[in-house]
Specification:
With 286 residues, this protein is an alpha/beta fold. It is built from nine helices and eleven strands.
């Protein structure tokens, strides 16, 4: 496996890494929860700033996507720009370092709020995609499933006038494109003509219960919780912090800026992710 060069570690990250190393050595079997901050160095934008506030308009809502043609046209039209950013992204050092924590048996499960599959590509073997995966599309009527690229190419072929647009990319395959999408043709299910949707949990939808149950089962058997790169503003991730506190599990957060669990954390590290993980692994027994 080819990995990126180890990130250069500054003094602040070195100190944070030593603190994280001590936490891991005291609590060697961790549930790891990751968020958008892990993937920003791969060129995938995140949702929130260091204070936890939205950086842009909120993303598409599940109910609106299902109910309104105009919302689906806008989503798939913007996706012509945004999806290739996720598809072509490469794992960064943070992903490889999380995989190394698994290799050293410091975690049995990585629960990720990201839908980019970069943990798997970096070599993590046990990953739970809490919010699904952006590289697959499912029919909401008949359950037909296909690769996202197939729908992307169909939309591109059906809408040649939209190929020339460019815009800043946004999280989860979106883009900050503001044009008239009323003529955009959406690709429907080739089997039943139903609504095609990326196999991800949109805002306003619920994480499937079996995923939550599996993560909680592992957390219950773990020595603690390590949150990496998440502000925890979304309840789907924050719930694991609440359960960790209820069950007396120590918790460490590694994130640039504020998190919703700051007052719950045994260890709060406001530091760069890749450099801090590198310093922590350098201090841990191989």
């Amino acid at each position: 496996m080819t990995t990126d060069p180890a990130p250069e570690v500054n003094e602040h990250s070195r100190q944070a890494g030593e603190q994280l190393s001590a936490f891991i050595q005291h609590h060697p079997n961790l549930l790891i929860l990751t968020g958008a901050g892990v993937s920003t160095d791969s060129g995938i934008p995140d949702y929130r700033d260091g204070k936890g506030a939205w950086k842009r308009k909120q993303p598409v809502q599940h109910q609106s996507f299902m109910a309104e043609d105009k919302v689906r046209r806008r989503y798939w039209g913007r996706s012509l720009i945004g999806w290739p950013v996720i598809r072509n992204a490469q794992p960064n050092p943070a992903h490889f370092l999380v995989a190394e924590l698994e290799r050293r048996a410091h975690t049995r499960l990585v629960v990720t709020q990201n839908v980019d599959r970069l943990h798997q590509r970096a070599g993590s073997q046990s990953v739970l995609d809490l919010h699904g995966r952006a590289d697959e599309v499912i029919c909401m009527d008949c359950g037909y499933r296909c690769n996202r690229d197939e729908v992307h190419e169909r939309c591109s072929d059906m809408n040649p006038d939209f190929r020339h647009f460019s815009a800043a990319t946004a999280p989860d395959g979106d883009a900050d494109l503001d044009v008239d999408f009323s003529d955009f043709q959406v690709a429907d299910c080739p089997h039943c003509g139903g609504i095609l949707k990326p196999d991800v949990v949109f805002f306003g939808d619920f994480v499937p219960k079996p995923r939550v149950t599996r993560a909680l089962d592992v957390l219950r058997e773990s020595d603690g919780l390590l949150v990496i790169g998440s502000s925890l503003m979304v309840y789907s991730g924050f719930r694991f912090c609440r359960y960790a506190r209820e069950w007396g599990k120590p918790m460490a957060t590694l994130n640039l800026g504020h998190t919703r669990a700051d007052d719950m954390s045994t260890l709060k590290l406001d530091a760069r992710i890749g450099e801090t993980l590198q310093a922590a692994l350098d201090s841990l027994p191989a």
